[in-house]
Amino acid sequence: MTSKHGDEGNGERIVSEGSRGRDEDGEMGKRLTVSTLQAREEEIERRKMEVKEKVELQLSRAEEEAKRLAQIWEELEVMGDPMGKEVGNVRKRIDTAKKELKSLGQICQKKLLDQSERWRMNKLEELNKHIALTN
What we know:
By secondary structure, this protein is mostly helical.
């Protein structure tokens, strides 16, 4: 009976030593898995930061370009504005001149009518005098 207990004791020892080996392997595997995951997380975080930096750099470039375009646009408006103002002023002068010419034309027509009427009246008076003298 003792030999049975002794054999069982050795078997338990072998089983427990085998379990320890497997436990150590399992724990080592877990550690390896954890460290691999940590390394992957660090790599992901590093790439994330690189992408973030690139995006921020491109964003700042885009903002600078937007400011530059706005400035150029303002300069173009300033350049175009004087021409637009000048054209507007010329148009106003033309409109004013047209109004003046129209009113001058009306005045001239009125004067011509008046002169024509006076001339006719003078001619009629002369004819009347001439007729009166001949009678």
